[in-house]
Amino acid sequence: RKEVEQDPGPFNVPEGATVAFNCTYSNSASQSFFWYRQDCRKEPKLLMSVYSSGNEDGRFTAQLNRASQYISLLIRDSKLSDSATYLCVVLFGNFNKFYFGSGTKLNVKP
Amino acid sequence: SAVISQKPSRDICQRGTSLTIQCQVDSQVTMMFWYRQQPGQSLTLIATANQGSEATYESGFVIDKFPISRPNLTFSTLTVSNMSPEDSSIYLCSVTGDSSYEQYFGPGTRLTVT
């Protein structure tokens, strides 16, 4: 089993739609959780950190469920510019080692 | 957030040669990481480079193939040695802040080995 697993993509949605991605992790001692966005041929950029019970930033909401060992990312009112690959990243324990999910590709269509 | 630059941005190299990639950060950071991202894949950690100590390599990566230097708190290099076409990939460096675990990435070096 992979340390971090994400929903397979691609997700093809119309503008204005609400879309949700899930990510599961295997290590219950995981410490920190992040969502990154990666545009084609670009480096990953931090979208949101996810701490405790989750957080919201504008149209983006991230949730953490420690009991079930998953995090989610909800995007409301999708924009064309949201089209990208979304990477789930988990920091395990105190080893300062980050595990990356394989990414979920989102295509927002006009 | 830190501003990170990498050189070169891309290169095409012949098999059997070596390439050294530089990573420069605009502020002092303790931890630097080197990743590889093969086409259509997610990121794979090669090694963690802390200033003043030997780099820590992940399973499947060895120092002879990927020697790393970390001479100070703002700079690191990764060398890809004796290259083969399987080394064709994007190589990214990243840093974390000393007070948070948020990672910031350099723009990457796109390597093609022929």
Mean pLDDT of chain A: 91
> Sheet with the most strands of chain A?
6 strands, mixed
Mean pLDDT of chain B: 93
Strand content of chain B: over 45%
Order of helices and strands of chain A: EEEEEEEEEEE
Tell the overall outline of chain A. globular
Beta content of chain A comes to: over 45%
Number of strands of chain B: 11
Structural class based on helices, strands and sheet pairing of chain B:
mainly beta
Q: Main sheet of chain B?
A: 7 strands, mixed
Percentage of helical residues of chain B?
A: under 10%
Show unreliable segments of chain A. Answer: none
Q: Please count the beta strands of chain A (DSSP E, at least 2 residues each).
A: 11
The percent range for helix content of chain A is under 10%
Low-confidence stretches of chain B: none
User: What is the structural class of chain A?
Assistant: mainly beta
Question: What are the secondary-structure elements of chain B, in order, as H or E?
Answer: EEEEEEEEEEE
Broad shape of chain B: globular
